[in-house]
Amino acid sequence: MIARALVRLAKLISGARAVWTTPIDGDAQRIFFANHTSHLDFIVVWSALPAEMRGRTRPVAGRDYWMKGRIRRYLSSKVFNGILIERTPSSASTEEKRKAAQAAIDRMAEEMGTEHSIIVFPEGTRGTGDEIAPFKSGLYHLCKLKPKVQLVPVYLDNMNRILPKGEALPVPMLSRVVFGEPMEMRRNEPKESFLERARSAVEKLRENHG
Amino acid sequence: MTFPFQRELSSLPVDPSLLMLLGGVLAALIVGSIVGFILSRTVKGEAGRATVSNLNARLRAWWVMVVVFGIAVATGGIGSLLLFGLISFLALREFVTLAPTRVADHQALFWSFFVLLPLQYYLIGIGWYGLFAIMIPVYGFIFTAVRSVLAGDVDHFMARTSTINWALMVCVYCVSYAPALLMLEIPGFHNQNAALLFFLVLVVQVSDVLQYVWGKLLGKHRVAPVVSPNKTWEGLIGGVLSATAIGAAVWWATPFTPAQAAGMAFLICVMGFAGGLVMAAIKRDRGVKDFGTLIEGHGGILDRIDSLCFAAPIFFHVTRFFFDVSDQVVP
Q1: Residues of A with CB below 8 A from B113's CB?
Q2: Domains of chain B, residue spans
Q3: With an 8 Å Cβ cutoff, are A158 and B97 in contact?
Q4: B110 vs A169: CB contact, 8 Å cut-off?
Q5: pTM above 0.90, yes or no
Q6: What is the pLDDT of residues B76-114, one digit of tens each?
Q7: Which CATH architecture has domain A2-209?
Q8: Which residue stretches of chain B are H helix?
Q9: Closest by Cα among A89, A48, A41 to A179
Q10: Which residue of A167, A174, A176 to mutate against B (max B Cβ within 10 Å)?
Q11: A83: β partners
């Protein structure tokens, strides 16, 4: 019930309209990857999914943020069923960062199991919305571990204006969640070309539907 | 001392002429729905079916709108205030979504939605005409510009601030004149102001519908080919004249004589057409067909109330100038 209320609230604030460019059937395991400009992004994508798909879809989020305070802890563990990832401080050494990243990827793959889908933001951090930053390699490594999973590009339109980086209060404009055509990792596809292909899939949704 | 809204609230049960107006609209809707149903069974061919299904979608939306508006008007001041406050909110969000604002305007926009808008309707609620009439054009105008400039981004500054002011004027200030009609003090018309609001909305919407119908039936010569290719002289003249006639025909529910009611209805129709044309130009400028997708068959809320935006303030002020006595009451 709380989940449904939150979905309503998120839709109300973001006025989000889901646009499916190709029909997507219910059963496959998926990684939804989207551009990232706002704290509301994940809940907006999550809310835009059809109910039965939403039940099986888990967001990937920072442990430090979501374990703070009882409400956030409750929401992340009971409502969103989030996969919480340790974030490394920027002061950490390259080796530490690499290790933490690897651990995070392993964790995601494990938590996905055989039925869950996830929502990720491969830019790694929120942008201003002017352009989509190059993707971090996490998406590539995760796909290596989960080669059968469908990859769904998602473009979030206008979220950067609803709750931009650095602002605490949202302005209730209308947004759109555009779901693109699912893609897969090609056999032996090099990391850079895969990541660029994924990024340009989101970019293309922005050009055609933004 | 009583505020106008307390009077309106105490006026329950509803004024009988208002009930008759509402009954008339419902009767028209029932007839329309029956015709729509018959057409959906009989019309063949793809283009015909598409038109009929659009007609039926519009009719369904009309039912919802009439019921919501009927409840709002029947509950007196507070219902109308809440309804038009909500309409302003939804319209403002549609307008701002299309507006070329930047991150630096975020705070100014936040204030527009959550402070200026509620304040405007609050001022109507307490019947403070003097501040309601100038709050957005004076204080809102200055405040939003200052709030945006403090954010320190000068790119397209003039376009951005102008857009925010336009959004507030059209979606909040102008729309709020509709429930503000309940504030007027017209001799011999106590507790009946809801009928004025009904008259305005009825004439505006009927004029829209009839312009569409006359345009579909006879439309040939375009009024404004660049701005709005679907608007024709035949539709405009036919729609305005027939809506004026309907406005005159319900004079008994208003404080006007039949001739005055016809004049007011004509004014409302012309202003409504002007509003629709200006909004169409804004949509063209932003490269969209509709402002939104909220109302099935109609587009967004702004697409439905575009004619009301310009008609409401003019109707309010003309009525106030010629019929309201509150200024003379002041010692």
Answers
A1: 171-172
A2: 82-183
A3: yes
A4: yes
A5: no
A6: 789 999 999 999 999 999 999 998 888 899 999 999 999
A7: 3-Layer(aba) Sandwich (3.40)
A8: 4-10, 16-42, 46-74, 77-98, 106-111, 117-125, 129-132, 141-150, 157-167, 175-180, 193-218, 233-249, 258-286, 301-323, 326-329
A9: A48
A10: A174
A11: A60
